[in-house]
Amino acid sequence: MSGTVRVIVLNADEQVAPELRAALLSVAGVRIVAEIDEPALLPQALAQFPAEVLLVHLDPHPAAMMDVVAPLLEAHKDQLAAIGMTDDRDADLVVRAMRAGMREFLWKPFPPEQLCEILQRVGAEAQSAGRRCGRLFVVLGTCGGVGATTLATNLAVELAQLEGWTADANPTARPRVALVDLDLRFGQVAIQLDAQPAYTIAELAETPEQIDPQMLERAMFKHACGVHVLARPADFAQAEQITPAHAASVLASLLEHYDFVVADLPLRFDPGARAVFDMADTYLLVLQLLVPAVRNADRILQALDRSGYAAERLRLVCNRFGRESGYLQPGDVEATLRRKLDFTLPEDWKVSSTAVNMGAPLLSHAPKTKLRQAYRELALTLARGAEPPGETADDGAGDRERKGLFSFLAGAKP
Hints:
Layout: E1 5-11, H1 17-25, E2 30-36, H2 42-48, E3 53-57, H3 62-76, E4 81-86, H4 91-100, E5 104-107, H5 112-128, E6 135-141, H6 148-159, E7 177-181, H7 189-192, H8 201-206, H9 213-219, E8 221-222, E9 227-230, H10 236-240, H11 244-255, E10 260-264, H12 271-279, E11 282-287, H13 291-306, E12 314-321, H14 330-337, E13 343-346, H15 349-358, H16 362-365, H17 370-384, H18 397-409
Parallel strand pairs: 1-2, 1-3, 3-4, 4-5, 6-10, 6-11, 7-9, 7-10, 11-12, 12-13
Antiparallel strand pairs: 8-9
């Protein structure tokens, strides 16, 4: 797809949410910036989240849904493309929707490529209008101590060293990179870079609908390596006040001003994590060749699949690869998870732990080590958007995803 397409979803039918999410995220370049299940929340979402598309699932009560969205469509018809979908064949409903400003109206069942074609067209229009968006890489560990935060930190540092990856394609300029600590209580991103920020994500979350470039510049800690860090709140009380919508709004703002955003997530799969996964271009799931990590990885993969997240956006990263004593065999792990390990990071615990204790990235602490080179290759591969060395194992999962997408668009009942 040409350009990123940001989508706000209004869907009051919880049963079809996973299939609808899968339908959208199966299209490259699509990013769900907000999922709304209460029509009354739509005005706030439209004000808070920049988007090119509003997708309205009108069922199960199309007429009542149109009563809410019609005035909003009229007010925003010049800013975003509205798409409606429903089982209802009422011609008056279609006429009303089109008069209100809905650009496309889809009756279920409809072919999967029809929605894809609409989104691609909107993406091309957004790119031609000069509306560009950064890319979001989400890092999630499978259990404590697997090195997810260290990976997120060094990945951001290495992305900031690349040349020619800015939004304006300047061949010599380095990209603007933001590193966000979304472990709001126990995050360690700032510590790993020996940063002492004056402001944190808490300040941006106070007024998420009013975040502007000046606020971002003030909140971000500028590290010498080129990375801009958004740290976790200073205390637990501030963390309690930050909702998933706040975090998503902050990320949406960052993606408008940075070429790459790396988000370090806490180990949990809750509404906050799902809101971030909606927006991500790539999910990096970090594990080690240990039973607890592999078991949790399997559970996370199953949860992502059930929730409709695109498997092709996920990458498995095996940290501390190469240790012999007491570790599982990579082939056995891949068989258990039913997919290949996409990236491996070599074992170098002594160097890595010393760098963490010193608050320095490997770029400055140990630039010639194999581990640092592995971080650099990971950053380069993600920046290119290329497929990693590993390939997804053919265990039928792809067929299940295609069947799920088709069944939704074909109007099959959940």
